[in-house]
Write a structure and sequence with these properties.
alpha+beta
């Protein structure tokens, strides 16, 4: 039978439509995890470690996608499944890890993931490393000691933090708002932004016209000229600049975009107006969601949050979808996003999004999008 060796002394065997994960390099003992067309079966130790149901079964309808991804934080490949949002609410996250490989063993990880997806009849996604962190071949060094898979639930560490429940929709994020739509989800500009932009445009146009009229009147007046005599010309130039600013605000208002996540046709559209599509990508053409941020302020919190070892933050955030064919698709930008972050934690490298580590409306919105599309969500600090 085909065998694939993984890190931590694990072995994957694939035979007759079955996919099994063993502790050790043989398959004499019972598998840790067994994949069948109807879902995953696992033992008590795995259930405790992954916060899964104690009945030892994860039905196929509770699994959305099989994912193999390269993690920057430990420079290795990870295989796991994304569970459905309903299961995620009971266990605190969608990612359920199964196995890991060294950074140069991506082909083995991909083989194992593709075989698992075929067994479960689920979509398979391969998340490659970023261009700035390509896997390197192994260096000549003594073999690392083997770490056996724990055999008892007590050997697994308890979750460090409690993952908060997802925020209800709509979620307002600066000048954007994520709301439910008949077709799925939609990002639109908040009405206050539209009103403010329109008033700013009208004010600029009105001020420019009045200022220009006064300057032109002073220039053409038969009475004593203004001194110095070039001031009316300066006024005309300033009025022209103010009018251009007003016109630009109107153009900005007319060119405002929205993002439709169409869960019926399984497609994401970036639109201008109600009908013009600027960029679109089907769900299967998307690999992951990325939330990047810059911390403008980070303060030690007080009270209950302080006891939970969190800091309050004010961050500048960006949300992007990544498509291998189209690259990064901008979704939303917020200049000021308030939330909390685990004390002492820094996102110097890209990592899987965990609301127990960083908790802001932007990260909740990204998680909701990822759950609907069925892709992983990552976070990084710019």
């Amino acid at each position: 039978m085909p065998k694939i060796l993984a890190a931590n002394n694990l072995t994957i065997s694939i035979e007759d439509g079955n996919w099994r994960l063993y502790n050790g390099r043989g398959d004499e003992s019972a598998p840790i995890v067994e994949a069948l067309p109807d879902g995953l079966r696992y033992g008590p130790a795995f259930a405790s470690a992954r916060r899964l149901s104690a009945d030892g079964r994860l039905p196929a309808q509770s699994i959305a996608t099989v994912v193999v991804g390269w993690a920057v934080e430990d420079s290795s490949w990870h295989l796991g499944v994304l569970v459905t949002p309903e299961v995620a609410r009971t266990r605190g996250g969608r990612w359920c890890a199964l196995a890991r490989w060294d950074n140069y063993q991506g082909d083995q990880a991909e083989r194992a993931g593709a075989a698992l997806a075929a067994t479960l009849d689920k979509p398979f996604r391969l998340v490659p490393p970023p261009e700035t962190a390509q896997p390197a071949p192994p260096a000549e060094q003594p073999p690392a000691p083997v770490t056996p898979w724990p055999s008892t639930p007590a050997a697994y560490p308890a979750p460090a933090v409690e993952v908060p429940a997802l925020m209800p929709l709509p979620i307002e994020l600066g000048e954007w708002i994520l709301q439910e739509d008949l077709l799925g989800l939609r990002w639109v500009r908040v009405q206050s932004w539209r009103t403010r932009t329109l008033l700013y445009a009208l004010f600029s146009l009105g001020l420019g016209i009045v200022f220009g009229a006064l300057s032109l009147g002073a220039r053409l007046s038969p009475f004593a000229p203004v001194q110095p005599d070039y001031l009316p010309l300066v006024g005309l130039v300033i009025s022209a600049i103010v009018i251009l600013i007003g016109l630009w605000q109107i153009v900005t208002l007319l060119r405002a975009t929205s993002v439709l996540i169409d869960n019926q046709q399984k497609i994401v559209r970036v639109m201008r107006g109600k009908r013009r599509v600027i960029v679109q990508s089907p769900y299967e053409g998307l690999e992951y969601i990325l939330v990047s941020h810059v911390l403008n302020r980070r303060d030690r919190s007080s009270g209950e949050m302080d006891r939970a070892a969190y800091d309050r933050i004010l961050a500048e955030t960006w949300i992007h979808l990544y498509s291998p064919r189209r690259g990064f698709i901008p979704i939303c930008y917020a200049e000021h996003t308030e939330g909390r972050i685990r004390r002492g934690l820094a996102f110097e490298e890209r990592r899987m999004l965990n609301l127990g580590e960083i908790d802001t409306p932007a990260h909740h919105a990204a998680t909701i999008m990822a759950e609907m599309i069925g892709i992983p969500a990552y976070v990084e600090e710019r």
